[in-house]
Specification:
Helices cover 69% and strands 0% of the residues. It contains 6 helices and no strands. Helix 2 runs parallel beside helix 3.
């Protein structure tokens, strides 16, 4: 395995760790702000896993839409079309909002939606990595 693929898989492992944390928080009834944070982190790291596999620069940003655009622009891979159609705009703010907004106390449904979107990003990233990065 080359360094690019190894780097990509390491990013994906971190993404899946955050996704597991978010799911466990949902399962035990919260805290849902932390579940939202881990969901955002999972999506962010999943997108960065794709960029790593493409050997593209990985920007220091939490903005999921910007990362999503970079992934889609950098590749014509079939699974990237799934990434292109996802609306991640409501998950992006959780990187900061969930940590610093003292009035941010989401309901379970909002956290669950974020976890579903993060899982879709991670699944698409895994498909791209497993199929196209060898």
């Amino acid at each position: 395995m080359n360094d690019r693929v190894s780097h990509s898989r390491q990013w994906l492992a971190k993404a899946e760790s955050d996704l597991t944390a978010a799911r466990r928080l949902l399962d035990v009834g919260g805290p849902f702000d932390a579940a939202c944070f881990h969901a955002q982190q999972a999506a962010e790291k999943g997108l960065k896993a794709v960029l790593a596999g493409l050997d593209a620069p990985i920007p220091r940003t939490h903005n999921l839409e910007d990362l999503q655009a970079l992934c889609v622009a950098s590749t014509a891979l079939v699974a990237a079309t799934e990434l292109a159609t996802m609306d991640l705009s409501d998950v992006t703010p959780f990187a900061v909002e969930s940590r610093y907004d003292i009035e941010f106390w989401p309901e379970r449904i909002e956290a669950a939606d974020a976890v579903v979107k993060a899982a879709l990003v991670c699944t698409a990233a895994r498909q791209i990595i497993d199929i196209h990065f060898k």
